[in-house]
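Here is my example:
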Amino acid sequence: MNRERKDGKTLKEEIIEYLRTRIITNDLKPGDRVVELDIAKKYDISRGPVREAVRLLEDQGLLEYKKNIGCVVKVLSKKELKEIYLILSSLEKLAINLTNGILKNEIIQKMEDKAKEIEKYIEEKDIENIIESDYEIHKQIVLNADNDKLFQLWDSMKTNYYAMYLTVLNKDPNILNRIHKKHMKFVEVLKEGDLEQSIDEITEHYESPYRIIK
C-alpha cells in the first residue's frame, strides 16, 4: 500500500518518520524491539508498508534483526564502534595525505557552513540534522581528495552513522552540548593546511567519543 496522505507523505514515509523520530529522541532505546504488527495496528494498515519502512531504517543503520528476538533498535558494541572509527579515520587521513593537508577553499567553506548549522540544530534539538551536518563535514574531507574509489569506500560506512551517534548519546547525552565547539575546532585545524596537525586532529576527533563508551 502506498497511498498519499494529506500532508503528501506516503504511508511508508510516514512510518519511517514516526520510527526515526522515536529512535532519535530516545523514546525507543538501543535494544528495544520494534514489532511490525503493532505499528500496522496503530495505522490500521497491512504490514507491507511497515515492512518497507523497517527495511529502509535497517539500511540507514537504525534497526537490525537479531535471531530469536526480531527487529530491534541498533546499538553498537565497543568493538564495533572502535572498528568503525578506525576505518573512517583511516580513510579521512588517507584523503588528507593525498592532498598534503591542503583543502580547497570551497571545501573549507562548506565545512564551516555545516559546522555553523550544527549550532542551530542543537538549539532546536534536531538530532537528525546534527547527524547529517556532521556527516557532510567529514564528507568534504574525502571529496577534497578527488578519488572516486576512496570516496565510495568511505561513503559505504554511512549506514553506521546514526548507530554511532545514538550509541554514544545513550552513554553521554551531554555530548550534544560539546558537538558544535568540537566541530568548529576540527574545521579550524584542518583549514590551516598543516598535514601533521590535521592527522592528529582527525585521530583525536574519532578517539574522544570512543573514550566515552570505554
The chain has two domains: 11-73, 78-213. The chain has a mean pLDDT of 90.
